[in-house]
Design brief:
alpha/beta; six-stranded parallel β-sheet; three-stranded antiparallel β-sheet; 10 helices; globular
Length: 302
């Protein structure tokens, strides 16, 4: 357990504020340091968040980049959104420059800090952050497909009329359009998920598309997504602070693939402890390999 844990949140937009708010409600960090390049936004968010003091003893304040570099956990949400007609490579170019500036401004980063990437494309930016930060690779990882997997478990739980925590299923690979569901390894009560008649009736590709496209649906309806990822990242911070050694699908560097992709990962106070290989069908393994090649092609220029 990290005593008097400090969490720095880089980026005071809707995602950064939602993460900070969820962390305050958990009341596990002693201090949240909020950093943003726009003074009015960060000051306004901190003033608003400080009103949650009635339910939390966590202190929240505006901080500099250098102060953030000395936090126990550094959550990076700062990044550019994709413009209409902009290619993914162009988006990565812009976010690379932002990430380079963010990490450069925090140097020297404390050697035992954990850096958690939330900005998209999270797999690519996680790999870049591993190179730029100077931190050991196991201390830099991304939120990956954790939220996607939560969406999947909720959908399957509704189908089976059980609590989502009783469904063990993962969305793996890229956090993006090429992500896939590891159906073969999924289970409920130790029973293979595919053995349930209700699951057998589902259109598996349609389920995959719905999970991958849910963010687009939310963005179309209200302009942005932030509550789900806020809750997920707060949970990840809690696991680090309390050294819970939970297993979540996170963006991590997978040696055999030579790329950062989401795989079931055990992590805690020291960062990534172990990456688990789970049984995949031939088709699922091919999807994983294809995602890895795509990631490597993009990251190779940085």
């Amino acid at each position: 357990m990290v005593a008097h844990a400090k969490v720095a949140v880089i980026g005071a937009g809707a995602v950064g504020a939602s993460i900070s708010y969820a962390l305050m409600l958990k009341d596990i960090a002693s201090e949240i340091l909020v950093v943003d390049v726009v003074p009015n936004i960060v000051q306004g968010q901190v003033l608003d968040l400080s009103d949650a003091a009635c339910v939390s003893s966590t202190r929240v304040r505006v901080a500099t980049s250098q102060e953030a570099g000395q936090a126990d956990i550094i959550v990076v949400t700062a990044g550019a959104g994709q413009r209409d007609g902009e290619s993914r490579v162009q988006l990565v170019d812009r976010n690379y420059k932002i990430l380079q500036s963010v990490i450069g401004g925090m140097q020297p980063i404390r050697k035992d800090a954990i850096m958690l990437l939330v900005a998209n494309p999270v797999d690519v930016l996680t790999r870049i952050a591993q190179k730029l930060s100077g931190l050991p690779q196991n201390q830099v990882f991304g939120s990956g497909t954790y939220l996607d997997s939560t969406r999947l478990r909720t959908m399957l739980a509704d189908t089976l009329h059980v609590n989502p925590s009783s469904v063990h299923a993962y969305v793996l690979g890229e956090h993006g359009d090429s992500q896939f569901i590891a159906w073969n390894a999924a289970s409920v009560a130790g029973k293979p998920l595919l053995s349930f008649p209700e699951i057998q009736k589902l259109d598996k590709e349609e389920v995959r598309r719905k999970i991958a496209g849910k963010a687009y649906e939310i963005i179309k309806l209200k302009g942005a997504t932030y509550y789900g990822i806020g809750a997920c990242v707060a949970d990840l911070c809690e696991s680090i602070i309390l050294n819970k050694n939970q297993v979540r699908p996170l963006s991590v560097f997978v040696d055999r693939l030579g790329a950062v992709l989401s795989m079931p990962t055990k992590f805690g106070g020291n960062g990534v402890e172990e990456i688990y290989e789970i049984p995949l069908t031939k088709e699922e393994e091919e999807q994983l390999q294809a995602s890895a090649e795509a990631m490597k092609a993009i990251v190779s220029k940085y």
